[in-house]
Amino acid sequence: MAALMLICLLGGAHSSYGASLLKLSPDCESDSKTQRRHAAHFTFQPDPVPTQYGPTQKMNLFQSITSALDNTLANDPTAVIFGEDVAFGGVFRCTVGLRDKYGKDRVFNTPLCEQGIVGFGIGVACAGATAIAEIQFADYIYPAFDQIVNEAAKYRYRSGNLFDCGNLTIRAPWGCVGHGSLYHSQSPEAFFVHCPGVKVVIPRSPVQAKGLLLSCIADNNPCIFFEPKIMYRAAVEQVPLEPYIIPLSQAEILQEGSDVTLVAWGTQIHVMKEVADMAQEKLGVSCEVIDLQTILPWDVETVCKSVVKTGRLLISHEAPITGGFAGEISSTVQEECFLNLEAPISRVCGYDTPFPHIFEPFYIPDKWKCFDAIKRMINF
Ligand SMILES: *[C@@H]1O[C@H](CO)[C@@H](O)[C@H](O)[C@H]1NC(C)=O
C-alpha cells in the first residue's frame, strides 16, 4: 500500500518503473487525473529569472534541490548525504546521480530508522562534517522527534558551547499533494517551532529552494528544511547553476498592497497570489503578499511593517488551525506591532482532523476560503 501510494505521488507514469504498478491502484489509474487534481488547487507562477548569480538552467523543484546538494558535495569535501533510498536517487529523485558522481562513502542509504538517521547526523556534524539527512516524508519525522528537539537543538547549550551540531541539515518532503492522505500530506512545522535551537525553513519555488537550502547547510545551527512535495515536478523555473545564498529569517514581499496583508509559506503562497488577484479583480482590494520563508526564527519586522500599513492580516497554512504557526504570528503581531487593526486578524488553515484522503479538496485552505476571509475583514 505504501509503495503504491508512493508511485502515485511520484507522478505515476513519469517514473520508469511506476507505469505497471500504477494500474493496480484505482486511485491513480491515469496520469491526467493526477494532474487535474494538482491543477485544481493552485497555479504555480515562476519568479522572474535571477540574473545576479550567473548562467541558469530550467529546473523543477527536485532538480534545484539536487543542484544545491551537488554544489555542496563539490565544494565541501566533508559533506555527506544519507537517508532512506537516497543512494539510488530518493523516492522523489532529489539525489539522482550524486552517488555515482561522489561515491558511496558520501551518498549512502541508511536503515529504515528515522531516529537513527538524525542521531547519526548529529554525531557526524559534531565530529566536524557537514551532515545532510533526508527523512523520506515529513509525516515520518516523528520517530526522530526526540533526537531533534532534545539532542540536536540543545547540543550547544548543553555542552556550554564546547560542541554543536550546527552543520546538520534535515530535509523532508512536506505538505499536501492532492491525494496523499493522513501519512503523506502533513505539514508538521508547528511541532518544531516550539523548540529553540533549530531553524525551520520552507521554500515556495525552485530558485528559492536552492538558495535557502544552501543557507541552511551553511548555517551554524541545525536546520529543518521542508520541501513542498506537490511542487517537485509541477514547479519549473530558470535556476542558477552556481551556488548562491538566500538569507534565513528574512520574509519576502512578493506583491505590495495597501488594504490586506496575506502571510503564508510553501505551496500556500501560490494560493495567496491567486487570492490577491481575485481580491483586486472582484473587490478592488489591494493585498500585500508576504512569503515568510523561514518559520523559525521568523521575520517579525517585515510582517509588522506591512500590517501597520494595511491594518488587516490574513495568515494561511495547510496544517490544522489549533496550535498552528498562524496563531503565533497573530499574537505576536497584536503584542508587538503597535497597530490599530481595521478588523480582527484572520486565520484560514486546515481543520483539526487528520489529513483526509478523498475530502482533501474540502480540507485545504483554498482560494475561496481565503477570499471569503478577505471579504469579511473588508466588511467588518
Ligand atoms: C561547521 O562548518 C563550518 C564551515 O565549514 C566550520 O567552520 C565549523 O567548524 C563546522 N562546525 C563543526 C562543529 O564542525
TrEMBL record:
UniProt xrefs under CDD domains: TPP_PYR_E1-PDHc-beta_like
UniProt keyword annotation of Heme present: no
E.C. code: 1.2.4.4
GO MF: branched-chain 2-oxo acid dehydrogenase activity
Superkingdom, natural source: Eukaryota
Domain Transketolase-like pyrimidine-binding: 59-234
EC category: oxidoreductase
Compartment(s) of residence: Mitochondrion matrix
Leader peptide range in chain numbering: 1-18
InterPro entries hit by this protein: THDP-binding (IPR029061), Transketo_C/PFOR_II (IPR009014), Transketolase-like_Pyr-bd (IPR005475), Transketolase_C (IPR033248)
Reaction equations catalysed: N(6)-[(R)-lipoyl]-L-lysyl-[protein] + 3-methyl-2-oxobutanoate + H(+) = N(6)-[(R)-S(8)-2-methylpropanoyldihydrolipoyl]-L-lysyl-[protein] + CO2
Gene Ontology annotations of biological process type: branched-chain amino acid catabolic process; response to nutrient
GO cellular component terms, semicolon-separated: mitochondrial matrix
Cofactors, names only: thiamine diphosphate
Broad class of where this protein is predominantly found: mitochondrion
Keywords tagged on the record: Mitochondrion, Oxidoreductase, Signal, Transit peptide
PANTHER family associated with the record: 2-OXOISOVALERATE DEHYDROGENASE SUBUNIT BETA, MITOCHONDRIAL, 2-OXOISOVALERATE DEHYDROGENASE SUBUNIT BETA-RELATED
Physiological role: Together with BCKDHA forms the heterotetrameric E1 subunit of the mitochondrial branched-chain alpha-ketoacid dehydrogenase (BCKD) complex. The BCKD complex catalyzes the multi-step oxidative decarboxylation of alpha-ketoacids derived from the branched-chain amino-acids valine, leucine and isoleucine producing CO2 and acyl-CoA which is subsequently utilized to produce energy. The E1 subunit catalyzes the first step with the decarboxylation of the alpha-ketoacid forming an enzyme-product intermediate.
Subunit annotation: Heterotetramer of 2 alpha/BCKDHA and 2 beta chains/BCKDHB that forms the branched-chain alpha-keto acid decarboxylase (E1) component of the BCKD complex. The branched-chain alpha-ketoacid dehydrogenase is a large complex composed of three major building blocks E1, E2 and E3. It is organized around E2, a 24-meric cubic core composed of DBT, to which are associated 6 to 12 copies of E1, and approximately 6 copies of the dehydrogenase E3, a DLD dimer.
Protein name, as recorded: 2-oxoisovalerate dehydrogenase subunit beta, mitochondrial
Protein's organism: Gouania willdenowi (Blunt-snouted clingfish)
Lineage: Eukaryota, Metazoa, Chordata, Craniata, Vertebrata
Gene that encodes the chain: bckdhb
